[in-house]
Amino acid sequence: MDDGLRKFIEGMPKIELHLHIEGAMEPEMLMKLAERNGIELPYKDLEELKAAYKRGSAYKDLQEFLDLYYQGMNVLRKEEDFYDLTKAYLTKIASQNVTHTEIFFDPQGHTERGVAFETAINGITRALDEAKTEGLDVEVAGRTENRKVTSKLIMSFLRHMTEKEGFETLEQARPHMDKIDGFGLDSSENGHPPTKFERLYATLKGEYPDKRLMAHAGEEGPASYVWEAIDTLKIDRIDHGNHSLDDSALVERLAHDGTGLTVCPLSNLKLSHTLDMDTKQKMVSLKEHRLKDMLAANLKATVNSDDPAYFDGYMNENFIAIAEALDLTKEDITKLARNAIEVSFLSPEEKIQKNEELDTYIERDRLSSQYVKQDTGHQRFFA
Ligand code: ES4
Ligand code: ZN
Q1: Dist. CA 36–CA 374, nearest whole Å
Q2: Nearest residue CA, atom 8 of ligand 1?
Q3: Exposure of 60 by Cβ count < 10 A (0-12 exposed, 13-18 middle, 19+ buried)?
């Protein structure tokens, strides 16, 4: 890829809208926490653990990844563990010029193992609050810089569990609602349609009208699951949504409503995303990704990392990989960044400020593109 475009992506102020904090567990962090908590791992060393993460190859499907992901969570026992994991993720994205992130956590993945709801949420929230107030010390270009990152926290329900278990988890969440900005639905999609959680979502909407609702839909599941998420669960945003493109009436509806889709390119690649439900044709290269079709159809698509430790990339790697594969222009890339601002859960005032920040970046880039580097190392202006 053109070095200029790569630098443009890396330097661009970005917003992340689809991130599972448990999916930010790097193999090194997993090892560290296992050791700290005296947990024996089924891997003899870091190399073997990295091989399980399938660096450079793909998982067979979503379930094969999820099995590893739930096993990885097992090292999270104490509040400090959740804090360290969250702080490491925030530090990483701050170094990539991500200024705001909306993150999921899976309380049931922890309470099921006997780790208290409050242990998880307190550790995560402490790191999120520090990043907002004190900021993070980030290494950039050989020096340390303090950067702040703002965030929202979204509590996700595991759809392979029952709706009744979802209601039980909601009860545990009640004392912590001041820390929760929204609710999501994730885990194994096929066979667990959004309608399974109709009563839970009606309760959430009725009791917490100021919090946002979303659901993973159309990742492995069909377009009908996206319809259910919007019409039955009445969600504000769709996570993934790739299979929306299979249904032109749905595309029209999503475009009309301006519903955000949090697309995750490297996740789709690494989970062997099915491109065609009839032929079961799998995506083997990002060149086949349909992100450009989404933009062309006026869908509010965004770029996100999903589970960056397991899918080989954070925000910059996702943007660079998809831009390279689909030959995206600076205009496409800034459109994706603007979509993220628009469909984020920031306030109208914060959105204006984020757009201005992006305007400034684009203008500075435009001006500096009018210079060419001379052999002398000086820059010359071409009017
Ligand atoms: C997930 Cl990629 C993906 N899909 C569904 N649920 C998830 N939880 C964590 N990552
Ligand atoms: Zn996800």
Answers
A1: 54
A2: 187
A3: exposed
Could you tell me what percentage of the chain is helix, strand and coil, using 3-state DSSP and rounding each to the nearest 5?
50, 20, 30
Confirm whether 219 is a catalytic residue.
yes
**What ranges do the domains of the chain cover?**
3-366
Helix (H, G, I), strand (E, B) or coil at 58: coil
For residue 116, give Cα distances in angstroms to 111, 120, 198, 203, 264. 5, 7, 26, 23, 30
Single pTM value for the model: 0.96
Give per-residue pLDDT as tens, 112-160.
Answer: 999 999 999 999 999 999 999 999 999 988 999 999 999 999 999 999 9
* Atom number, ligand 1, closest to the C-alpha of residue 219: 4
Q: Among the options 16, 219, 220, 228, which is catalytic?
A: 219
265 neighbors 288 (Cβ within 8 angstroms): no
Question: Measuring from atom 4 of ligand 1, which residue has the nearest CA?
Answer: 187
Superfamily in which the 3-366 domain is placed by CATH = Metal-dependent hydrolases (3.20.20.140)
